[in-house]
Amino acid sequence: MNYSVPVSSIIMMYVVVVFSFALPVVAVVFIRKKWKADFLPLWVGAVVFVLFAMVLERLVHSIVLGSSAGATITGNVWLYGLYGGLMAGLFEETGRFVAFRTVLKKKLGKDQDALMYGAGHGGIEVILILGVTMVNNLVYAAMLNGGTAADVLATLDAQKQATLQAAFMQLSTTGAGVYVFGMIERVAAFALHMVLSVLVWFAAKNSKDWYLFAVAIVIHFIVDMAAVVLNASGVSVALIELVVIVMVALSVWYALRVWKCRKISK
Fold it and tell me: Fewest CB within a 10 Å sphere: which of 2, 47, 118, 230?
């Protein structure tokens, strides 16, 4: 095994790690300075994402995908996209709604806090999914370029060796430009979380706006499903990101209309 990671790729990995932490921090500072939003929704958003997306949703995945129906779902890209998008929409938007109707119920009079919640929910996702992954990649890159990868592989069983070798191969063949797309994707995802937080916020605030909760689930479902199906279809990463950005932009436009049509607390 003679894999190595180009210096340009390693530099981009460091850039991505910094970006992963900087994006939510900059957003929080901006929201706090411009709208005087509170910090409680920020922390609640982070906790809700971890609980509903990282724990509860994954628990359901382990049950469903580990059942007899699992092979059917994962073996068909459309079914997998439908399933994945629906689960993400249901769990994350339900998490938002529950948080707004319980822990943050007394904050519903201050609409700007919806943005702070979105920064917490989307921010922790950026850190955990992109930032932590890049740190892990940097460790692998150090092993490969430092010549210690073979020693590590020798301590593993056959199955784990195959998994790690595949990760090493992918890492060594990934160009620096791919990491730029990763950052673009996370910006779009972060913006989408802000949108969904605003929609569910108003749904929780006023019973007549209950339909916005359903709209949030549908938007989340469509974006996630499209990304899964397009990725499996073999189209370019650039085209996938373009499609996602267009859908997120339309979602932002819709959320702004919802925001402007309702009284915003001062």
Answer: 2
Q: Could you tell me if residue 265 is inside a domain?
A: no
**Which residue's entry shows tokens 């249901």?**
90
Residue 266 in any domain: the answer is no
Domains contained in the chain, number: 1
In the numeric block, the tokens 């992918």 are attached to: 170
Q: What is the DSSP string of 40-61?
A: HHHHHHHHHIIIIIIIIHHHHH
Distance CA 21, CA 100 (A): 25
**Which residue from 245, 243, 184, 195 is spatially nearest to 219, judged by alpha carbons?**
195
DSSP H helix total and E strand total for the chain: 12, 0
DSSP secondary structure letters along 97-148: HHHHHTTTGGGTT-TTHHHHHHHHHHHHHIIIIIIHHHHHHHHHHHHHHHT-
Nearest alpha carbon to residue 12 among 133, 179, 124: 179
Tokens 């900059």 locate to 26
Q: What is the pTM of this model?
A: 0.93
pLDDT tier, 52 (very low <50, low <70, confident <90, very high otherwise): very high
51, part of any domain: yes
Interatomic CA distance for residues 88 and 253, integer angstroms: 22
In a domain, 83, yes or no: yes
Q: Is the pLDDT of residue 1 over 70?
A: no
